[in-house]
Amino acid sequence: MRYNAIPVSLFVENRNRFTEKMKPNSLAILTSNDVMPNNADDVMGFSQNNDLFYLSGIDQDETILVLYPDAFKEENRAILFAKEANEHTLIWDGNFLTKEQAMAISGIQNIKWIHEFEKTLQLFAFEADIFYLGHNEHIKRVTSEMETRQDRMIKWCKEKYPLHQYERVSKITRELRPIKSNEEIDLIKKATALSVEGFHRVLGAIRPNIKEYELEAELLYATVKNGGTRQAFKSIIASGKNACSLHYNSNDDVCKENEMVLLDFGSCYGNYNSDTTRCIPVNGTFSARQKEVYESVLHCLKEGSKLLKPGVLSKDYELQMAKLIETELVKLGLITEDEIKAQNPEKPAYRKYFMHGTAHHLGLDVHDVGLYSRPFEKGMVLTCEPGIYIREEGIGCRLENDYLITENGNINLSEALPIEIAEIENLIKNKK
Question: Superkingdom of the source (predicted)?
Fold first, then answer.
């Protein structure tokens, strides 16, 4: 593993909390993600199924976790199935986790090779009445043409055991995962620290006529050099008008004199993610108009983040954030009070310049699992990311921090990431 060992107590406790919520005489089956092929004999980078990782800490493909808390034999209450190395795989792929290593990482005492799964499940199926199965239901994109290892497991189980009752793993994990343990918070902090280092590298590199992807490379370098698993997502390095396209990430344009660059980026460390956004001037000094827009967005971030506290509903938070942005848009001369009074409530005037939500859960997924009908609670980690996008002026500004909800408010986990205008300008000047 690139990252330091995660305390095994995290995964033991996660399994205990999960199994406490399972129905009597039920078992859960969680499978790893696939290694996805690219072209010829190449593959895409592996990314573990996050529910499986949450319950086991195993970061390897071809892995199955079976939890059967009511099993008569104690050793059968948690079994991890892993792939076994052989002469061929040792030559071509190197070694896989040994049983001892899998045991040390997960805290599971019963480790079997994956070819033993079907025979083992057959023994349990006669006694168990309910199967909990995982599925990619949290994904936001349409995946009707894709079939995952989870899809194949669901199909196989229902063909093999059609008379059993089936339940969803995500019904439990969507309740558990939003509340982060101290170990998880530490991992998010480590991911954020990689982003801080990458941002400082960007501040030293920024100059007129640099390519957007050159700045992206600085962020990626800091992540990989310090043991990050990968970028949390493909960085958005959007100069000038490109910043007005919310998911722009081709990052192949030239950063021009007098433009501002929006950088939406994050690092993944130990499978936990950071997600931050900053805007910086290409020539090292914000123009008067850029300062106006930036200060408006920063005001909304500072005031809006105060709403991230226990008991607040997401919809109420978003309404308050929209009001903050609306007020700033009037100050900036982009909309008028008369336009607000005459607006269609379904299509408010501010939507021309601000068109997205500003808070999402953060953790194993960048947009982590959680029900937005559930009020914010102590231990949740959420982003705050207001923005203003003025396409006609070629200015797009978004600022984003990551916040840990505490008993009385929140803690900014990305506090070390420079954000004040004077600080950013001075850092760019001093790094030259």
Answer: Bacteria
In this structure, are residues 270 and 190 in contact, taking their beta carbons and an 8 Å threshold?
A: yes
pLDDT of 272-305, one tens digit each?
999 999 999 999 999 999 999 999 999 999 999 9
- For residue 95, how many C-alpha atoms fall within 13 Å in the half-sphere facing its CB? 6
What's the rounded Cα separation, in Å, for the pair 322 and 358?
9
pLDDT tens digits along 191-238:
999 999 999 999 999 999 999 999 999 999 999 999 999 999 999 999
Contact 108, 116 (CB under 8 A): no
Rounded CA gap, 282 and 209, in Å? Answer: 9
- How do residues 231-262 score in pLDDT, each as one tens digit? 999 999 999 999 999 999 999 999 999 999 99
CB 133 within 8 A of CB 166: yes
pTM of the model: 0.94
Please give the biggest Cα pair distance in the chain: 76
Three-state DSSP class for residue 24:
coil
For residue 429, count other CB atoms closer than 10 A to its CB: 11
Report how far residue 81's alpha carbon sits from residue 84's, in angstroms, rounded to the nearest whole number. Answer: 9
Written as one letter, the residue type at 407 is: E
* CA 48 – CA 46 distance, rounded (Å): 7
